[in-house]
Amino acid sequence: MNMMLKTHSCGTLTKKDVGQTVTLNGWVQRRRDLGGVLFIDLRDRTGIVQTVFNPDFSGDALAIADRARNEYVLAVTGKVVERDPETYNANLATGEIEIRVTEIEVMNAAKTPPFPIEDGVEVDESLRLKYRYLDLRRPEMQKTLLLRSKSAKIFRDYLDNEGFIEVETPILTKSTPEGARDYLVPSRVHEGEFFALPQSPQIFKQLLMVGGLERYYQIARCFRDEDLRADRQPEFTQVDIETSFLSQDQLLGMMEQLSARLLRETVGVELELPFQRITYADAMNKYGSDKPDLRFGLEIEDITDIVSGSDVKVFASVAAGGGVVKALNAKGCASWSRKELDDLQPFAARYGGKGLAWITVKDGEWRGPIVKFLKEEEIAALTERLGVEEGDLLTFSADKPKVVADVLGNLRLKLGRDLGLIDDSKFKFAWVVDFPLLGWDEEAKRYVAEHHPFTRPKEEDLHYFDTDPGKIRAQAYDLVLNGYEVGGGSMRIYKREVQEQMFKALGFTMEEAHEKFGFLLDAFDYGTPPHGGIAFGFDRLVMLLAGRTNLRETIAFPKTASATDLLCDAPSEVELSQLEQLHIRTVLKPKPVAAAAAGAPAGESNQ
Amino acid sequence: MNMMLKTHSCGTLTKKDVGQTVTLNGWVQRRRDLGGVLFIDLRDRTGIVQTVFNPDFSGDALAIADRARNEYVLAVTGKVVERDPETYNANLATGEIEIRVTEIEVMNAAKTPPFPIEDGVEVDESLRLKYRYLDLRRPEMQKTLLLRSKSAKIFRDYLDNEGFIEVETPILTKSTPEGARDYLVPSRVHEGEFFALPQSPQIFKQLLMVGGLERYYQIARCFRDEDLRADRQPEFTQVDIETSFLSQDQLLGMMEQLSARLLRETVGVELELPFQRITYADAMNKYGSDKPDLRFGLEIEDITDIVSGSDVKVFASVAAGGGVVKALNAKGCASWSRKELDDLQPFAARYGGKGLAWITVKDGEWRGPIVKFLKEEEIAALTERLGVEEGDLLTFSADKPKVVADVLGNLRLKLGRDLGLIDDSKFKFAWVVDFPLLGWDEEAKRYVAEHHPFTRPKEEDLHYFDTDPGKIRAQAYDLVLNGYEVGGGSMRIYKREVQEQMFKALGFTMEEAHEKFGFLLDAFDYGTPPHGGIAFGFDRLVMLLAGRTNLRETIAFPKTASATDLLCDAPSEVELSQLEQLHIRTVLKPKPVAAAAAGAPAGESNQ
């Protein structure tokens, strides 16, 4: 028996195909019987087309088609004809034609799916994940996976054209001493030893530069065994890039060209180049975030100098204690209700703030709990600095810089959304640069690397190693898009003397450093070129291009927030003999009976 | 301080660049002082160029360059000049020019490498793997990695152009009930449970077809925890492909076009299409192998019918016992020495044979231990079947079919090499088709799937399910190249009734099948399209294109035969706290003191 295999695809047929005899393969989207004439909408990857079964031309095919139900797989042969203009369907790309079927083959039957195969229906996500193979038939999932595939192709084409070599680095590798929690893989051959899955190909990409490859890239799977949030997956994909003999400016310029091409060829948006560059310090000051959403203004203003001698006690005392006082002018929000104003307090608390002072400007008058403590000249200075006008709502946070940034940065984002300041069709890229090299770890009482211990300091800040290491800025950069970090990287240290200074600042002797980073430091002794790189968070980038808000929508077979694959039911128990071969055994805590009965997996995908 | 960053690459400069001032970055390949004039050969990814430091034009740069040693990283600026034609170096692409250096920067110093950075030097492989970052600087390693990257690009470009979607499937997945040994990953969140690393994306690619993606590909990492041979790695790469609504012929034709493009654009060879197709039965009969090297003839002949009544006892008794007698005519080998002829016996033994009879044809006379037992008509029949001529050496194997195939198949390969019948510049592709669907497992006393339980039987053999399942041929195919299997796949079962017959033949009830393959069988109930696919062994394919004989040469950071990464020293011991978080502990056998002291790792990389 020869199968009736497709000559055309459902979604691509138009009036220009009228008169042709075509064979189509696809799934039954919908089936209607109108007085003995059967209409079946047939769906494949390209779209939907209407097929018609009529006693006048379909013969036996009509009776066979009559038994088909939704999601049956059919092969049909028939002639493309133009529909009666009155029955044109403007919702379908193929809406001006239909197929008069003369032959049919039921390639396969189908049970009734647990949810309709179409966009926009409300389905519990855990059900979608369990039946992912049906969920993937929905047009919006296919569109997103196509966009993902296309995006990868654009990255590869661009990089290939610029002389980058794609190199695959190991998945079974060594547990790293710093960073997130590793996934481990017990070795069968080497008793008691373990591989680790890579958190990123960081070490390998640097070794490839030592190896003289000059330009490397890889669309690499990475693994972090962290507690998950909505925008994290235990395995994720990054476009990993490393170069030698390039300056930071050259590399960033190249990545801008790449991003511009990506946006042009996926969403049809022409980006303005070069991207805005903003220092980490400015980003934190003006937007309260190191990944500012720059699609709107609404900048935060530092008013510490104005209120340091204020009668508003909390302002004065915070200023005296080394804290900061900052304000955000919510234009036009003076009309907020008392309830809305009251809600500012729990909002601030959510981000660690102790409170949020406010002032409304209505009918030329300043109102609010703190107004009576403000001096004439403070009001004048605030009016000028904050550009105060009739109808404004002024909000104030006074605390440690980090808390103020979190509170006002998040208030800024909320206002941006609530006030409709954000143009959702806009893709606003920017570089955040000049990150601090080191951060002070209060617990460990030592400096830790903000990026990683091989990040190159800015040349002009090297002298701070001896005086004030906290002031050193790094040649590190993040690429932000609409308030998300979509990429990040750094130039790397390649001179031994700088590396030694770095380890000293981190409180390691060279011996300790060698214990931690042995072979990488060895490698650096054999002629390391100046190098640096970047990694793009591919899942997140695709999510933003696709206009989705959940990473799982961009991944064919994602895991839930509890790192479960609901489709294959992984992880799962394994045979004892498997563990014996790996020289391990499980050590289980006795489970309370109640917990065991609670059936945890069902709700896990919705966090 | 601004770095002197490259304006050009070393290996690309030619006479057309004469007169230009260029800046180059690279590694010192060689340094010669000829009477106060210093010549430094500078190397980057593109090749080597000669730079000259002369007191006449180099100023301070000469003294700085004088301190440089092999593998120092230099930046030089200078003018491209033509060399005196008498000093042209024909071994270098840049041999007609040199750079008169006026400025230099030592970007980095280098310790003396443990082996010379050049092709063709004898270096112990374990040393190369430990210092892989230096090994990768060797031109032939860079050439191979470039070829690998280019090959991946060609696969992607071709498949993208044919409407294939690249989809990433999970690395953290579920342990499979059949197949090779899994690598396991303990779950932290789900106590006592484990992920497994995929042996291939087989299940996911079929689910993507159920999901309506129609054409999928992925260059996928796969994992098998097997005892390794020279051509195996614990993690390996396959180009994984699956399609819906295509016949086997359509798919194979597409893969031929793809292969032709790959060969054209990498090694510049134009392949003849379509590829030869040979059935599994013919391949075993004629070449004693299911992956025959078809670059040469030397076919094996079945002579069982001729000698079944022979006075050569072993021939007659093997024929009577259901075995086969086959012969290979080694043309022109009648002149072999007695020693060479004697060596045939241990050769046969190595492949499980009990012996190898032989006859030389010299001066018109047949000589050898069995000649006297051959009847006139047997000699006549053999002369005709084997095309016997003066100077031939006839070899005979009599045993079970599998043993005869192994012995004569391997003898054929050895003769092919020894007699110079193999043209090494040739790339001879062929499809081996019609593999048996089932094999009889003597131990388990049941049939097992030769490919996997979802392989589609040939339509015309379906009736054998009821009578003689061993006779069913599968819609399965291997792509062989020069005696290596470089790809393989099958059409899959998509009809429930066929799947049930298959499980029945394998001795499973549908309930047992459900326990093993649960969610995949569930998926098949919801409208599964006819589908099938293939996977290319990417590492091996690149190895053959690069003319190498070892998979490790094609992988940037390979593992040794004992699954060790000598560069990062993985696997390794981990912190006890890491194991506690994963709810496991190690169970170690006490090591005998002698074994512990033997220092196993050192020699492990060679085999």
TrEMBL record, chains A, B:
Organism from which the protein derives: Paenibacillus agaridevorans
Record CDD domains: AspRS_core, EcAspRS_like_N
This protein's name: Aspartate--tRNA ligase
Assigned protein family: Belongs to the class-II aminoacyl-tRNA synthetase family. Type 1 subfamily.
Function: Catalyzes the attachment of L-aspartate to tRNA(Asp) in a two-step reaction: L-aspartate is first activated by ATP to form Asp-AMP and then transferred to the acceptor end of tRNA(Asp).
Gene3D superfamilies found in the cross-reference section: Bira Bifunctional Protein, Domain 2, GAD-like domain, Nucleic acid-binding proteins
Keywords from the named record: Aminoacyl-tRNA synthetase, ATP-binding, Cytoplasm, Ligase, Nucleotide-binding, Protein biosynthesis
Gene Ontology BP, a term: aspartyl-tRNA aminoacylation
Region (Aspartate): 202-205
